[in-house]
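Dear colleagues,

As part of the handover before I leave the project, I'm documenting each prediction I ran so the next person doesn't have to rerun anything. This entry is a single chain, and its sequence is reproduced below.
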Amino acid sequence: MLVVLALFVGPASLPAAEQLEQAGASHAAVAEPGIPQKAEGLVHDEFFITNSMLVTWIVALGLILFARIATRRMQEVPAGAQNFWEWLVENLYDFLEGIIGHDLVKKTFWFFATIFIFILFTNWFGLIPGVGTIGWGVQREHGFEVTRPLLRGGNADLNMTAAMAMLFFFFWIVWALQANGVKGFFLHLFGPKGESSGALKLLLIVIFFLVGFLEVFSILFRPVSLSFRLFGNIFAGEVVLLVMAFLFPLLPLPFYGLELMVGVIQAFVFAVRTLAFMKQATTAPHGGEQQH
């Protein structure tokens, strides 16, 4: 928008060639700190491993190694890495149990805890200096310009967030069917809620049957909202940091603290929203959980 305004309000006395040259320079200055929305292949565009995939593999490998090291020599009185890992897992378990209940958390804790921890550390890994600024590029007049970063934030790639959302959607269907059965699952969507009789009951059956189709549409839209929410917030944060660094090298420092907090919040929001969907799907219409 700023570039378009500059083109229209520029001095009319300049020759056309000079106007085009200034417009191109202004566009380059604005576009220089930009981040492509699509993850790029490590070697070329068609390469099957992207820079975002590489980051997710590094984070996953780091978490696995840390967990193995922390639990290699278990002690009754934990200390160091074991103490931190047990504190994290125990608090997550208590938090999830308070939302979805004791029986369901035993079945689903492995998934929700993994999602939360993975998203959190992937968000934080994207803030490490060098991510997005080290890679292949070309030598310009003003210096070396990276055109293909080696590393890119894992959750700044819509493919990654969409994959996690679709994976949750798959397990959501499985756990909902296990908790309610096929008949109970469809009654949960299309069945009437509340107690009634006579003509009012027939009216409620028709109303809730129609409302069920809206609920199905809402369920199908959940992976979209989950993936775009996480991707949008993380991608926007990286853009803000890059623009601030382009304007002044030390300006992004206060924003790093903000992005650290945003990384926690976004991991928490993704986990809580999936937990709420899970809780809703495994709760009977009258308000009690299905026990199996």
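Strands lie at 135-140, 143-149. The longest helix spans residues 198-247.

All the best with the project,
I.
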